[in-house]
Amino acid sequence: KVQEANRHNNQMIGDNEAWELLSSIQAKFESGERVNLLDSPTRRFVREGDLTKQNRGGTKMFHFYLFTDKLVYGAILFNGNMKVSQDIDLRKCFVPNVVEGVTDPERAIQVMSTKKSFIVYGKTEEEAEGWRQSI
Prior knowledge:
Elements: H1 2-26, E1 45-55, E2 58-67, E3 70-76, E4 82-89, E5 93-94, E6 108-113, E7 117-121, H2 125-134
Antiparallel strand pairs: 1-2, 1-7, 2-3, 3-4, 5-6, 6-7
């Protein structure tokens, strides 16, 4: 019974820490953003970082947050907050291991979803592979 109580307490502490982390990330989003990170009790933070997104007119740096069930990205504003560009449900998403038709396929990450499809680049091959594996 003591071990079961300890396991339960550790789970509750872990859940509280995960909620606090999600809450602190949510606070970085511009007020009025439609993304709610606290609406799923099973959501966990996985990683974050800056990736270069390929656009029609060139490339642009965006900040990405990866969670167990969603990928959120946007632009960091002068005040340090983030203006969210997209909130992508990972259940409706596919990331192929190989990106074809790009100049630097080793650093490329292709995200294909029912909502939005795009290509981003990591700074290094290792960073890109880390993101592909995490997603």
